[in-house]
Amino acid sequence: LATGPLAGRHVLVTSGPTHEPIDPVRYIANRSSGAQGTALAAALRDLGANVTFVTGPASVPPPAGVRVVKVETAREMLAAVEAALPADAAVFAAAVADWRVENAAGQKMKKDGSGQAPALEFAENPDILATISRMGQGRPQLVVGFAAETETVTAHATAKRARKGCDWIVANDVSPATGIMGGAENAVTLITGAGAEDWPRMAKDEVARRLAARIAAAL
Ligand code: C5P
């Protein structure tokens, strides 16, 4: 049986990108590797939590010792998250596609020789973090979101916390000059109801361990 401060607690983590199909062989995606979400799931597991890890098609393998639920699209991710509840805490580290292709084709799209390119139409995806943050009965006690920003990080992330209705936001500056996106280090600001805390730049694994410890202390 697991021991540690999170023993007996169920924590849900979303991670990775989503893929939104254009046709059966093509999709829209983003550059998320899933590294920070994977490190976080491992750190929560190491504190004894029972972790459900809902992951899009990430480029790093999921951690051992957690329950892995693999999904492709944002709508599948929301359904998997809802099916995994109840949870004591939920951390939304996934880079969910904001839009899906509304007119995705049932068969592989073909060039028809006319020189005309197909027109894709987009529909907005559900916001999983906001949906879970705003559920009444059954809402996890602690809901944590992420915010990747390229400017005025704290102000934007503080506004995002209010807009989404989550308890904490982990904000980071993903401007290309920081080398954070796709890199091994992160420099985050933790926004809670008590204000903003700037953490020094450190390895993503260390960010994960500190955040897991804060989650354990809050539950
Ligand atoms: O609004 P933005 O995409 O910047 O918010 C990022 C946060 O919201 C992340 O925690 C991300 O996992 C979550 N999110 C979500 N569902 C979406 C879009 C974002 O859960 N459709």
TrEMBL record:
A single Gene Ontology CC annotation of this entry is:
phosphopantothenoylcysteine decarboxylase complex
Task: Please write the reaction equations for the catalytic activity of this protein.
Answer: N-[(R)-4-phosphopantothenoyl]-L-cysteine + H(+) = (R)-4'-phosphopantetheine + CO2; (R)-4'-phosphopantothenate + L-cysteine + CTP = N-[(R)-4-phosphopantothenoyl]-L-cysteine + CMP + diphosphate + H(+)
Q: A GO molecular function for this record?
A: phosphopantothenate--cysteine ligase activity
Q: What are the names of the required cofactors?
A: FMN; Mg(2+)
Q: In which pathway does it act?
A: Cofactor biosynthesis; coenzyme A biosynthesis; CoA from (R)-pantothenate: step 3/5; Cofactor biosynthesis; coenzyme A biosynthesis; CoA from (R)-pantothenate: step 2/5
Q: Does the keyword Magnesium apply?
A: yes
EC numbers for this chain: 4.1.1.36, 6.3.2.5
Binding-site list for CTP? 98, 108, 126-129, 146, 160, 164
Sequence segments annotated as region (Phosphopantothenate--cysteine ligase): 11-219
- Highest taxon of the lineage: Bacteria
**Keywords, comma-separated and alphabetical:** Decarboxylase, Flavoprotein, FMN, Ligase, Lyase, Magnesium, Metal-binding, Multifunctional enzyme
Q: Name one GO biological process term.
A: coenzyme A biosynthetic process
Coiled coil regions in record: none
Q: Where is the DNA/pantothenate metabolism flavoprotein C-terminal domain?
A: 6-217
Key word ATP-binding present: no
Role description: Catalyzes two sequential steps in the biosynthesis of coenzyme A. In the first step cysteine is conjugated to 4'-phosphopantothenate to form 4-phosphopantothenoylcysteine. In the second step the latter compound is decarboxylated to form 4'-phosphopantotheine. Catalyzes two steps in the biosynthesis of coenzyme A. In the first step cysteine is conjugated to 4'-phosphopantothenate to form 4-phosphopantothenoylcysteine, in the latter compound is decarboxylated to form 4'-phosphopantotheine.
Q: Which family does it belong to?
A: In the N-terminal section; belongs to the HFCD (homo-oligomeric flavin containing Cys decarboxylase) superfamily. In the C-terminal section; belongs to the PPC synthetase family.
The identity of this protein, by name, is Coenzyme A biosynthesis bifunctional protein CoaBC
Give the species.
Answer: Gemmobacter aquatilis
Q: Recite the lineage of the species.
A: Bacteria, Pseudomonadati, Pseudomonadota, Alphaproteobacteria, Rhodobacterales
Range of the intact protein held here: 179 to 397 of 397
